[in-house]
Amino acid sequence: MVGASVQQLRKALQTYNSTSNVQVLIEVVRALYQYQGAAFPHKPVDSRPAMRITRQDLKLVCYEYIYA
Question: Are residues 59 and 5 in contact, defined by beta-carbon separation less than 8 angstroms?
């Protein structure tokens, strides 16, 4: 994530912590996903349930980096 996105996410998290309004946090996450997700081509959705989670399925998000 770029610095501006992290700042937006931090601000939304602070708002959530002070107001307990999860809607603000969800809106920011959706907006960031739409903005940054558009840069990556989407794979066709497979309607079959996944049998096993692989390393390629995982994305690391450092909560401490965002929350600090």
Answer: no
Half-sphere exposure of 45 (CA within 13 A, CB side): 1
Residues 24 and 11: their CA atoms lie apart, in Å, by 10
In tens, the pLDDT along 24-40 reads: 888 988 888 888 766 55
Number of domains in the chain: 1
Provide the mean pLDDT of the chain: 78
Do 31 and 43 meet the contact criterion of CB atoms below 8 Å apart?
no
CA 22 to CA 16: how far, in whole Å? Answer: 6
Q: What residues make up the domain containing 60?
A: 3-42+49-67
pTM (2 d.p.): 0.51
Count of alpha carbons within 13 angstroms of residue 16, beta-carbon side: 15
